[in-house]
Structures are given as structure tokens and as C-alpha cells.
Design goal:
alpha/beta; Rossmann fold; Dihydrodipicolinate Reductase, domain 2; 2 domains; six-stranded parallel sheet; 12 strands
């Protein structure tokens, strides 16, 4: 099949590399407002260059990967759908939830599939955790713990446009909690602080946060996030039930140092970047998209799924600012 890629920045170039190595993908067509980025990708992966999104869609692509700036996501998703081309779009659907809702309204009733990029759903550990929950191996869940700690904060320009740590970072934890447990979030309470980069505080954001999510069956989920984890990129999940407890992310590259006498775990070089931690997951995610394009599976992460995680992020953002519990239903009503 022939896949088009719009946006050849860090993640777009990474996706181009991944797609070029998939057996199902015969050729790539790429486009980027920065001609040099498109040219570099074309030279590296043998791709064809289109000078605009319209030209790319007219080039006979079977599927469209949107890795452009967030502001461009709604228009590019809709352009793909209107052209009848299955779309993979990196999260979020749009910069704001209201824009995301408009995208959802616009595509409802269409049979063109859309897959939103939440790569943790394709990580082997998270998939095994979901399977264990579905099989009843843990019994009734009572506690979930999720962690995402970045080794260093992104740039000031990125922070200013990110929408805040809950919308940018924690949203991955919110999505994976829903996916692994199969439950919805009924209420949140969030806290946060600034102990590091001044530009994060100046942007009105927190650099370290905690959130307590009460799921609709009473399970308590604890989410911990920070922009500052010098030891590496730390993504983990624990699930505790009345029959058993399991963990995702406890491998030898876990960026933690044990101070227990005689302990040698973890002994590997810590994960230092999300592309390192989730290389296999990204490959599985884009392989799934080729199956969506081929019509052999439905979208594994729909626009509706992405918006549900977004509403949790909105609720946490409001809770942080107003120091009170918030329900996702409250922010939906806006």
C-alpha cells in the first residue's frame, strides 16, 4: 500500500522510518511546509514529495498519517476523510476540546476510519496488563498507579503551546487507565507544583503533578507526572486487585536506583527518551494502521477514545486551578 505522511518533524520522521520498514507499505508520499524536511525524508526513505496536503491526497495514497503541528490536525483529518482516505493522527485531535468535538461531529456517519495515536495501547506490557484484567486474574481491582516522568522539560516554546502538563503528558496515563481497566473516570482531584524551570511557572503550568482518579466502579487510580526525572524516562503502571497484583515497566532499563543492600535490579542502562521506551509499540501501532487501511480491523483508538482522555485532562486542569474535585461531566457541560 501507499502511505502519505503530513509533517516531517521529530515524530513524523520517526513514523516515516517505521513505515518504510513495514512489509505492507510499498511506498511513501511526504509533505511538509519546510521543504528541506520533506526532501530529507524523501532521500532517506525513497519517498515521493508532494508540495501540499492537497497534492499528497491527490497522489493516490491508501492511508494518511498526520504528524503535523496540533493546530493543523482538525483540517488535515477532515481532508483525509473527505478524500475517503483512512487517517492516522497523532494525539491530540485538536488544540482545544471544543475543536475536537467539532471534528467528531463532522466525521460521525462517515465510514472512513480514523485512528488517533496513543502508542501505549500497543506496548506489550500494557497489552498484557489489559489481558490480565479482562481474564479476571487480579480479581476485583481496588488500586491503579500510573507514572510518567520525563528526563528533562521540553522547551519554553513547546510548554507555551502544549496546553499544560495534564493535556500534554498525563493524558497518556488517562488513556491507558481507561483502556487497561475498561472503566470510565467518575471524578478527579489534582495537585501540582513548580520546583524547576521558571518558564513553566511563567506559562501558568505545573512541572510536577499528582492526580487521584475515582473510576466508575470505585477503583482508585493514582497518577504521578513530572518534567524532571534526571535518571531517565520512567513510564510504569501497577494494578492491584483482591487476587493478585501486576506491574508494567519493571524491566532492567527502569530509571530507578535501588538502595536496598545487595539489590542488583535494575541493572540496565535507563530509558532516556520516549522513542527508546516505545520503539516496538510505535511499530505495532503503525502496523495496526496498515490493517485499518486494508480493512481487516477497526480503528483501535477512535476520535471518541481520544476525546474521553481529553475530558479527564480538562477536569484535572480545572481541579488543579480551583483546588477541588471535578467530574469529567462538569467540564463537558463547560
Amino acid at each position: 500500500m501507499r502511505i502519505g505522511i503530513l509533517g516531517l518533524g521529530r515524530i513524523g520522521a520517526f513514523h516515516a522510518e517505521t513505515l518504510s520498514g513495514l512489509d505492507a507499505v510499498e511506498s511513501l508520499v511526504v509533505a511538509d511546509p519546510f521543504a528541506d524536511a520533506a526532501k530529507a525524508a524523501a532521500e532517506r526513505f525513497g519517498a515521493e514529495v508532494a508540495d501540499s496536503p492537497e497534492a499528497l491526497l491527490a497522489a493516490g495514497v491508501d492511508g494518511l498519517v498526520v504528524a503535523a503541528a496540533t493546530d493543523a490536525h482538525p483540517a488535515l483529518i477532515l481532508a483525509g476523510v473527505e478524500a475517503g482516505v483512512p487517517v492516522f493522527c497523532e494525539k491530540p485531535v485538536a488544540r482545544t476540546m471544543s475543536e475536537g468535538v467539532e471534528v467528531l461531529k463532522a466525521v460521525q456517519g462517515s465510514d472512513v476510519p480514523i485512528q488517533i495515536g496513543y502508542n501505549r495501547r500497543f506496548d506489550a506490557g500494557f497489552a498484557a496488563a489489559r489481558a490480565a484484567v479482562q481474564a479476571g486474574e487480579l480479581g476485583t481491582l481496588h488500586t491503579v498507579r500510573c507514572t510518567t516522568l520525563d528526563p528533562a522539560p521540553p522547551s519554553a516554546a513547546y510548554i507555551a503551546a502544549s496546553g499544560g502538563i495534564f493535556r500534554d503528558c498525563s493524558v497518556h496515563d488517562f488513556d491507558i487507565i481507561r483502556w487497561v481497566t475498561g472503566r470510565e473516570v467518575a471524578e478527579v482531584y489534582a495537585v501540582g507544583g513548580n520546583r524547576g524551570a521558571d518558564y513553566i511557572r511563567a506559562a501558568g503550568d505545573a512541572d510536577t503533578t499528582g492526580a487521584i482518579l475515582t473510576l466508575d466502579d470505585g477503583t482508585i487510580a493514582v497518577v504521578s507526572n513530572s518534567r524532571h526525572n534526571k535518571r531517565g524516562y520512567d513510564v510504569r503502571m501497577e494494578l492491584h486487585g483482591f487476587a493478585d497484583s501486576i506491574a508494567v515497566g519493571l524491566d532492567d532499563k527502569l530509571p530507578l536506583r535501588s538502595v536496598e543492600p545487595g539489590a542488583s535490579f535494575p541493572s540496565g542502562t535507563p530509558h532516556d527518551f520516549f522513542m527508546d521506551r516505545f520503539t516496538d509499540a510505535y511499530r505495532a501501532e503503525l502496523t495496526a494502521f496498515t490493517e485499518v487501511v486494508a480493512g481487516t480491523r477497526p480503528s483501535p483508538c477512535t476520535v471518541e477514545d481520544a476525546l474521553e482522555a481529553g475530558w479527564i485532562a480538562e477536569a484535572c486542569t480545572l481541579s488543579l486551578h480551583e483546588h477541588r474535585p471535578v467530574t469529567p461531566a462538569e467540564v463537558r457541560q463547560g
